[in-house]
Amino acid sequence: MRQPLSIFLVVIQLALTLMLGLAATRVQAQVLRVGIYEQQPDIYLSPDNHPAGILGELLNEIARREGWTLETQPCSWQQCMQWLHDGNIDLLPDVYYTAQRAKTLGFHHVPALHSWSQMYAKAGNTLRAITDLNGLSIAVLAGSTQEDYLRTTLHSLGIQADLIPVQDLTDGFQLVSRHQADAVAADFYIGELSAREYGLVTTSIVFQPTEAFFATQKGQNATVLAAIDHYLSLWQADPNSFYFRTLDHWRLVQTPNTIGPHAIRFIITLAVSLSLLLILLIWQQIRHTRLRRQLQAKTRQFDTILGSINALVSIKTPDGRYLMGNQRFEQFLGASAGHLVGRPDTDFYTNTDTLATIQQSDRAIIETGTRSFIRQTIQRPQDDSARTLLTTKAPLWAANGTLEGICTVGTDITDHVQAEHTRHRLTYYDTLTQLPNRRMALEHLQQIIDSTRHNQAHGALLQIDLDGFKRINDKHGYRTGDELLAALATRLRKATREHDLVAHTSADEFVVLVDALGNDSHESARIAMSIAENLRQTISGNTLMIQNIPVLITASIGLTLINAASHDCDTVMREADMATQRAKDQGGNQATFYKQDLQAEVEQRLWLEQDLLQAIGTPQLSLHLQPQFGKDGQITGGELLARWQHPTHGPISPALFIPVAEESGLINLLGTWTLGVACDTILTLQALGEIYPLSINISPKHLMEVRFVDFVRETLERKKVPGNRLIFEITEGVLIQDIQAVALRMQALAQLGIRFSIDDFGTGYSNLAYLKRLPLYELKIDKSLIQDLPDDNDSTAIVQLILAMADQLNLRVVAEGVETDDQARVLFQHDCHALQGFLLARPMPIDTWIQRVRKRQLSADH
Ligand code: C2E
Ligand code: CA
Ligand code: CA
User: Fold this and answer.
1) Could you tell me if the CB of 697 is within 6 A of ligand 1?
2) Is the pTM of this model over 0.90?
3) Lower CB density within 10 Å: C or N end of the chain?
4) What is the C-alpha to C-alpha distance for residues 253 and 608, in angstroms, rounded to an integer?
């Protein structure tokens, strides 16, 4: 069907040859010896010994235009190459460029023919991808670039295929058609021409794009190569040029030399009937050509896109070997062009974290089979710098549903991340001090306000305003002022916990935000005040040397607590502001609370703690004794109660200073002193013949102190006081702690003779089970229950219950806070063992009690 056109072309060819001959006589002829080997349709020798085929026609046309005379010399491929090396021929068409060949041969620059290699096999084959070649035998032209390529690629991908080198591609096609090989690798143009002839079809395995050139001996024929480049570039830019007409023609026709005279007659007979069909075919061919050009253009576009986009694109096999990567990715890896395929990540990355990151994300794709979108930090092999990549990974599936590869597209966002970081710093940090700025402080404050609503814990805002900063600026200049601020920033940062926020909010103002101060507002206020006081001293404590000038600066600090009741940032900031203003009004260099009462309380706690430490062991602190009486008025014992006579504030209630002592840890010191005085008192009373135990209050903290038992033993031994003269009053609160440890501790003390009384009994924790587990001697009914006797039915019922239960448990009961005769009567009626209260005796100085004892003994003597 294609023959009529072929005949027409043969005529054209003859005409061309004739014209070429004419041209050759016209111009000073340059004779070029051209090696011709059979490689239809690329190149072959026409019956009249002229170059034919695609490259042959191109060469003929260039020779015609340049006035060259072509002398053809037929040769086999190996022979042609040898002749070219030896200088026996000047030009050899259809040589694929390889780096190896470029060492010994000269090439022009514009490829004469773009082609690629393709696998051909019998119809009905299942070849889809290169991995499908596993276990098959493949015919390939001996010594060809296809052979090279297949050997290295199959090996690096671990594909076991048997390569059968053939001297002539026709042999290869024959082997497959005779089932002696499974597939044959061939250049696309050649394969398309031969495949059908041998009953083979094109498979979807495409590989190794190639570029065919005219080659010369290295360093020779530079003007010839330049002329070839000139025409090729001119023609390839024009779709209607001689070049594309030649390509189209060769896609369309069979080789002309197959046509015999007998066929001509046959064709002429059929010509008329086939002409319509021919027109249709030509139309289809034109369409096909257009589509092919579009496809080529698309492929070029795609290559251009892959080459120019900023992303790192790669595909690798499920076992981690690269199938492809774009140029940018190769650069990223520091791999030379074309050295990626078949190699694993370990050939490029040396950083173990990076390798682990990549492997982990690949594994996730293999395991889940779904696309992922992740942010990764990768150590770039090219220059060993850390890069942040936004990576999309997607599985690539084969037609049969198996995972064929993993496609990765990474975008390097390192610069963006850094820019974002810088933007964040500029938005939220102060450039002078490097501290967070007002904006950050406000956002942090809002977070604290929100969290206090959930966890009830208090926070605090401290506003630090430098006193007379303007004066320093005026006197020493702004540079000095700036350096002072920077130095103070460092100091403030050092003086606070890492978790606290220190911000520079305006020229001479800093803000410190602390949170998680606890649930108790008084305690939180106390801690906040001590932080503020510490910061005040940090600022004013020592002279700063700024530019060799000694600068002394003080600050006014305003504090306010942040709690669930704090409305919003503005309110809290305003409160701190008002407090700062008050600190300034009072002369500066001080810390002030927003709430006056809190301020007073915090101040009181501060001086209570300081002064109590001074008072212990001095006459300021003493013990009073309150005796306890039995039913018949006999003395059964006495409780020792601490009293503090402050030199300026007068008497201070233990209800006030005992909690301060407990919080500050002073309670241990106080307890030690109390035990000493108690022992002395016991001895004094013993000397007077008064033998009854004395009760002292023991703080839970002191009781559980590691050395407490040893200390009590040593004191008793040293003072020579029998342990059974002492009753330790402990509150129910102590039992909320680790009951096991408390029981052990009490048992150890009980071995020394110490007896235990539960103080304030009936008010709190009422798990009676523990009573049996502890070495108890006595219960002291709390005065709040006694006070309501006998009118309040509930209290009466509880008191009766306690007395009945104590009787069951064989415990002694003392009622405290007895103020009326009615109370005493009811208690004794229900068999309470002893009473303590104002009705019988107020707590009195120990000396007073001893005098009373003496007086009683004297009057008894008389
Ligand atoms: P507490 O152990 O319950 O002590 C009894 C409290 O009741 C004493 O208050 C006492 O003066 C008071 N009181 C006695 N009789 C009456 C009365 O008829 N009516 C009223 N309304 N009150 C009466 P005080 O001395 O103010 O002690 C308060 C608390 O301070 C004590 O309560 C005790 O828990 C603690 N405390 C006192 N001295 C010491 C001490 O040396 N060490 C320890 N750890 N705590 C002590
Ligand atoms: Ca007590
Ligand atoms: Ca009590």
Assistant:
1) yes
2) no
3) C
4) 112
